[in-house]
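To fix ideas, we close by showing one paired sequence and structure record:
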Amino acid sequence: MRKMPKEYEIGDNAVDGLITRLAKTACSAETEDLLREILTTSVKLGKECGDKGDLKLVNNTLKELRYSFKIFAPYRDVKKVIIFGSARSKKTSAEYRMAEEFARKLTAKGYMIVTGGGSGVMEAGNKGARAGKEFALNIRLPFEQKPNPYIDEKDKIINFKYFFTRKLIFVKETDATALFPGGFGTNDEGFEMLTLVQTGKSKPRPIVLMEPEGSTYWEAWKRFITSQLERNGFIEKKDFNLFRITRTADEAIGYIEDFYRVYHSLRYVAGLTVLRLNRELSAGTLGLINKKFKDILKDGGIRTSPPTDKEIQEGEYPGLPRLAMNFNMRDYGRLYEMIGVINKD
């Protein structure tokens, strides 16, 4: 068990002893040290913070996260796709029909979908999903955001007070992102998702910008990205690998499935970047990625690898083959490109 740093204690033997005993009785030995830190933080807040509003913020945040973890825990091994888009899209709009078709076909393939729980595109996603294959992460607003009537299981509706906790769960509990035309909220969620993968704060995932028939929404967005961000040096050409514009539901689903065809998941362990694969990579493709993507390595090469001790201890897919490399933790657009090559093996 990891020992909590001495400096991260209350400094009162009686209180620290109570925290230790409570942690021992409340969780497993594997998580005891983390719970001790959480309890210590809570007590420190009580001692150091006299602002009731600050304490209410922390309290509500922990409650929202705890409940969300509980709801998603039984479904952690099922691939999930977030659907973002306008709450104001009409039922007759092309994006509504496309989102409904997308959710219907995805859930027929075994995926689950996650929406913001509101009207418009979110409603279409819940409407199209098979029964029991959906979640709704609703945000409490004074207007326009009430849970839509197409959510099959009410225990899969989570109501959030804060946007930041809702966004965290959107990313943490899903494996792909689909963005339909929308307003400030859709663009906020899209840019944040791109920022997270560009900076490595989120693991690689397919991000599809879905362009329904008759729409030029994402193409116009891409022109802005090109003329104002890329040409001014605010992003690089390789960052365009982080997303894909698709024009049909089938094309979007194909891209998501292709992203996980050979690539499975990624883990950082003690400075090493480990890519878990669904099957062994051919020698030819291994040689190709070593030659083509040497520029994204700090040193060494890309090599096959057994599970690390940390992965074995935590039971993270010990039976899957792996690649290991000293990734430079910077060129995520190129990493996406490499994943694309791996998936063509």
